[in-house]
Write a structure and sequence with these properties.
The complex is a heterodimer. By secondary structure, chain A is mostly helical. Helix content of chain A is about 85%, strand content about 0%. Chain B is α/β, with parallel strands linked by helices. Chain B has a seven-stranded mixed β-sheet with strand order 3-2-1-4-6-5-7, sandwiched between helices. The chains are: A mainly alpha, B alpha/beta. The interface of A and B includes residues 87, 93, 100 and 104 of A.
Chain lengths: ~120, ~220
């Protein structure tokens, strides 16, 4: 028998996989990010359709229940995401600052020419 | 002093910047002011003087302002470069002395130290924070100094051409020491006097910012 939650998760997972494959923007541009998102979608479907699989893996690595394992993995994924986001932001900021510096220096050069 | 550019990062210093430039210009010919996106009349005050003005379109932090000032000063016919704070806490005679030592001892960079020299009006909490910062910086940068967060520095053209400050905010003080170590610049510390006024105290940095700086420095170390 199929539960409502199973339908919901499968639909969302398929949507995520499709969106990540179709997107051509910079964020989804990197191949490994696509692979990661598709793999994540597959895992979501597996976890919701066959709960025993996550239970089995959890027991294998020494965690009591499949739900606990999912929680740990989620927390870990979130930390990686947050750090990645922070580093991306810093990179963006560096780019912006380099651009702003060029603008400032060009402007100053113009002004000094006018002075002379 | 000929052939010396003095670089002053400016952020919301309209009250004092004019008089600081006036006094600096009695000794130095080339004054480079970088207005780091001030919200007040700092730029207008600088324009009233003969100093060069470079305006950041947005606020980027003191480290970024220093880098901009250095890059501009490279285009001037000078041999030596001095960084100087805008809030009037540095003494001009210290800057002159540092350039003299730079020339006579043939060092690449000369750093001011308030703990070899003296301070006027420094609060105990500020002193404690600085001492902690010194321990921290000395352990992360790999060179040992008595004062790691002093804005008064003098260096030669080789340093000006090669230095690349990437940390935009106040953590640049630690980064400069890492650059000294990495590029093998020869350096020495010189005693200087720092005079704290109500004005400069109000503009100083808080403890929260120190935590930010520590975090960023450690992250930079890990990711290298």
């Amino acid at each position: 028998m199929i539960l409502i939650i199973q339908i919901l998760v499968v639909v969302i997972a398929v949507a995520v996989a499709l969106i990540s494959l179709v997107q051509r923007g910079t964020y989804f541009g990197k191949a490994w990010k696509k692979i990661f998102l598709v793999a994540l979608s597959v895992l979501m479907i597996v976890a919701v359709l066959f709960p025993n699989v996550t239970n089995g893996i959890a027991n294998m690595v020494g965690v009591g229940r499949g739900a606990d394992l999912l929680l740990y993995v989620t927390v870990l994924a979130f930390i990686v995401y947050a750090l990645n986001n922070y580093l991306n932001q810093q990179e963006q900021r560096d780019r912006l600052f380099r651009l702003a510096r060029r603008v400032a220096l060009m402007e100053a050069k113009e002004k000094n020419k006018a002075k002379k | 002093m000929d052939k010396v550019a003095i670089i002053i990062p400016v952020y919301n210093e309209s009250e004092v910047i004019h008089s600081v430039i006036e006094s600096v210009s009695k000794t130095f010919n080339y004054i480079v002011c970088v207005d780091d996106g001030s919200g007040d009349a700092s730029s207008e005050e600088i324009e009233k003087t003969d100093a060069y003005l470079i305006k950041h379109p947005i606020n980027m932090g003191q480290g970024a302002a220093l880098q901009t000032g250095i890059e501009f000063a490279r285009t001037l016919p000078v041999d030596y470069f001095v960084t100087f704070d805008a809030d009037g806490q540095h003494r001009l005679q210290d800057a002159v002395n540092m350039v003299k030592i730079l020339k006579s001892q043939k060092k690449d960079i000369v750093l001011g130290s308030r703990f070899l020299g003296s301070t006027i009006g420094m609060k105990k909490s500020k002193k404690l924070m600085l001492k902690l910062a010194i321990i921290f910086s000395n352990s992360t940068s790999g060179i040992k100094l008595t004062d790691t967060h002093n804005g008064l520095r003098a260096f030669n053209r080789m340093v000006a051409e090669t230095i690349q400050i990437t940390v935009p905010d106040m953590a640049h003080a630690s980064e400069i020491l890492e650059i000294i170590k990495k590029n093998n610049y020869t350096y020495t510390e010189v005693p200087v006097t720092i005079e704290y006024t109500d004005y400069s105290r109000a503009k100083g940095q808080g403890l929260v910012n120190a935590v930010n700086i520590g975090f960023d420095t450690i992250l930079r170390k890990i990711l290298k």
